[in-house]
Design a protein that fits this description.
alpha+beta, Alpha-Beta Plaits, 4-stranded antiparallel beta sheet, 6 strands
């Protein structure tokens, strides 16, 4: 399990708080709305597309104090991420890999649906990722 965390961006601290088990069922519908099935599947597929070692599992949800959200696979070891499109090849924590998968999925949803909420989710998560301890790897993977 990843600990709750916080990062500072533009003089504002963005906090990430794990969604408790009792509130999980309502979390993704609140952020994905009618695109729930597509959005959730895109996150999982995004990780599978860049991580040969990922084959499914339980994910934790994190809500951001700036209104964003992200998901991370609950695994004990780092994941090797390889992005054919930009040549990134590196290992990162499950937290960082989840951020990468969500950024990829939010971007895809924004382009596919042209719905502003997915662009907002992308930028809210990007602001959080900007000062994540693994920010260089996260941004290299999504570049």
């Amino acid at each position: 399990m990843q600990p709750d965390s916080e990062v500072q961006t533009s003089n504002a601290i963005v906090k990430a708080v794990r969604v408790p088990e009792s509130k999980r069922m309502n979390t993704l519908p609140r952020y994905f709305g009618r695109r729930l099935m597509t959005g959730e599947a895109l996150v999982y597929h995004s990780l599978q597309s860049v991580c040969d070692g990922y084959s499914g599992g339980f994910w934790d949800f994190f809500e951001l104090s700036n209104g964003g959200v992200y998901m991370t696979p609950r695994l004990n070891e780092p994941l090797r991420i390889q992005c054919d499109g930009n040549g990134f090849d590196g290992e990162m924590s499950c937290d960082a890999a989840g951020i990468v998968a969500c950024l990829m999925a939010f971007n895809a949803l924004a382009w596919q649906t042209r719905e502003a909420q997915f662009g907002e989710l992308f930028y809210q998560l990007r602001d959080f990722a900007a000062q994540h301890v693994e920010a260089p790897s996260i941004f290299a993977a999504i570049d």
